[in-house]
């Protein structure tokens, strides 16, 4: 078809080269890179827009008060609030992960009662806003003023004031952990279901018990699926700690900077201070998530090495084209021209 177009255009048709008829490698194609001018224009526009925004924020918006930002960025009250924020994040996630694993196992249990209890838990804690749950936990000392221990329907042997037993920090941790456990349960369940059931059958055939099967066979493979969303949940938990003012717990980062802003009457720079520290901690968590994902994804998606032939192979000539002197099959006297039967080629078998 291309030769017909060439003749119609007045150009001589390209004659097939001899090396193409022989089956040799064709000449290298000179590739021309495809240009994307509009992509470059769009990138330049984005860079200019970002530069204009930064310049405007730095010199034309006095409400940002960058001197106030620098003054309170390393203030002792802010640094202390970062510590409380990290404690809320770590403690809540540890409890949520442990409880989430238990709920995931309950969801996969063949016992219908156990599965129903886990499903109701997920329904309640995933179906109501976390802020509403934190408000409820803050009202627990009002609803249950004392915790009485003793024999039912008799006088209490020990009575403990709820407010003394559960301070607002503990209530904030409980509220965050119970809400997050509902999401972690689904993440863990998805990871366990991603492992083929044949792995468990093989482990059972080798005589491994349930604990060793889960810890050495199933979980190491499921972690590749569990780690990425769990890392996202940790980062989300860090930011969700700003809602514990509903308990109320007022020593975490956002509420602390808001209290300072109510005194200095500078809310915008204090919001910038809080945002900077959230970004710093989130960036560190993202780096840790990256290395965890890479560790548990070892061997996944790796291409196997190309298998090399064990014996030397020769060229197969085209039918009807005589091989050149020195080429494999030139001395063969068969009637097939350049065609070399498989049993006559090196490595072709007997």
TrEMBL record:
Its main location: membrane. This is Amino acid ABC transporter permease. It comes from Leucobacter weissii. It comes from the Bacteria. The keyword Membrane applies. GO terms for molecular function: transmembrane transporter activity. Residues 1-22, 327-350 are annotated as: Disordered. The chain crosses the membrane at residues 41-60, 81-106, 118-144, 165-185, 268-288. One of its GO terms (cellular component) is ATP-binding cassette (ABC) transporter complex. PROSITE patterns: ABC_TM1. It is found in: Cell membrane. It is a multi-pass membrane protein. Keywords: Amino-acid transport, Cell membrane, Membrane, Transmembrane, Transmembrane helix, Transport.
């Amino acid at each position: 078809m291309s030769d017909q177009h060439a003749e119609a255009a007045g150009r001589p048709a390209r004659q097939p080269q001899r090396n193409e008829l022989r089956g040799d490698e064709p000449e290298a194609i000179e590739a021309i890179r495809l240009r994307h001018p509009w992509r470059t224009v769009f990138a330049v526009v984005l860079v200019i827009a970002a530069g204009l925004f930064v310049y405007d924020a730095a010199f034309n918006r006095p409400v940002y008060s960058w001197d106030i930002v620098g003054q309170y960025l390393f203030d002792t009250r802010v640094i202390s609030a970062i510590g409380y924020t990290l404690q809320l994040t770590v403690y809540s996630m540890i409890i949520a992960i442990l409880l989430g694993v238990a709920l995931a196992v309950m969801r996969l249990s063949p016992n219908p009662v156990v599965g129903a209890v886990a499903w109701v838990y997920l329904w309640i804690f995933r179906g109501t806003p976390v802020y509403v749950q934190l408000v409820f936990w803050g009202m627990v000392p009002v609803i249950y003023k004392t915790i009485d221990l003793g024999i039912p329907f008799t006088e209490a042997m020990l009575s403990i004031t709820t407010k003394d037993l559960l301070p607002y920090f503990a209530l904030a941790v409980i509220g965050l952990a119970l809400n997050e456990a509902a999401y972690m349960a689904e993440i863990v369940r998805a990871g366990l279901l991603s492992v083929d059931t044949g792995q468990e059958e093989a482990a059972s055939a080798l005589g491994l018990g349930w604990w060793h099967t889960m810890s050495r066979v199933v979980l190491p493979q499921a972690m590749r699926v569990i780690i990425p969303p769990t890392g996202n949940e940790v980062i989300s938990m860090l930011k969700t700690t700003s809602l514990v003012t509903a308990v109320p717990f007022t020593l975490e980062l956002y509420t602390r900077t808001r209290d300072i802003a109510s005194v200095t009457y500078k809310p915008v720079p204090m919001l910038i201070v809080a945002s900077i520290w959230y970004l710093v901690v989130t960036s560190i968590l993202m780096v840790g998530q990256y290395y965890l994902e890479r560790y548990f994804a070892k061997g996944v998606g790796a291409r196997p090495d190309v298998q090399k032939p064990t014996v030397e192979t020769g060229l197969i000539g085209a039918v009807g084209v005589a091989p050149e002197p020195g080429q494999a099959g030139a001395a063969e006297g068969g009637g097939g021209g350049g065609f070399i039967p498989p049993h006559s080629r090196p490595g072709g078998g007997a």
